[in-house]
């Protein structure tokens, strides 16, 4: 039996405890942050599609873990480039989301994308 990507010892504990924390961080902070910054985030539709994909229990576990990690990076107040910096603030967030979405684009379904567009339309009203 091959254990591709298996982690042992401290790495295994860190990996298994990180996902629930990332998911909780995203569930608690995603909507408040998105509502504050939606006008300044050109990748909002991809961000929302990733959010809906991460919440979808039909999405494979490893994809959900990666998406929650990327979404937690967006939600966290401190990151590589502060979000308050004009024109540059969300470039690191966009790069992280774009990378994860590109890796797992086959898991973002038309339903996830439709829900993202609908949510953005509702926020615009």
UniProtKB/TrEMBL annotation:
<keyword id="KW-1133">Transmembrane helix</keyword>
<protein>
    <submittedName>
        <fullName>YkvA family protein</fullName>
    </submittedName>
</protein>
<feature type="domain" description="DUF1232">
    <location>
        <begin position="64"/>
        <end position="98"/>
    </location>
</feature>
<keyword id="KW-0472">Membrane</keyword>
<keyword id="KW-0812">Transmembrane</keyword>
<dbReference type="InterPro" id="IPR010652">
    <property type="entry name" value="DUF1232"/>
</dbReference>
<feature type="region of interest" description="Disordered">
    <location>
        <begin position="1"/>
        <end position="21"/>
    </location>
</feature>
<dbReference type="Pfam" id="PF06803">
    <property type="entry name" value="DUF1232"/>
</dbReference>
<dbReference type="InterPro" id="IPR016983">
    <property type="entry name" value="UCP031804"/>
</dbReference>
